Amino acid sequence: MDTSVVPFTDSAPISVVNGFQGGMWVMPTLVATGIGPAGHVTGTIELLDGTPVGSNAFDVRLEPDPSGAWLLRRLPIPVGAAQGSPPVRQIDDVPARLTITCADTCENSASYVQTLRLHIEGVPP
Question: Domain of 103: which CATH number?
């Protein structure tokens, strides 16, 4: 199983997959420096016009990466679940903005913003 992390490039596709317990999800990996291992992470996806697609926020304990950074292997963000979100079928191959913010218990923070294309894997609901 390949566990390597590949950084996103501008307008790269990000897979939207069926969840084990239902729903459609994006599961990016977070690699961060300059913060501690415990804190709070927030992930949001919105279309470029600001239309919400999905978000999730929770407390985390990051794991050490061999590079010296901190790692969260999967940040589950539901797609199509946000109020006002278009149906999943309408956002396949549509540009969207992914924003991830992580703040540690000492109030240090790291943020990441990237424009990506949502790519629906399988049959959306």
Answer: 2.60.40.2550
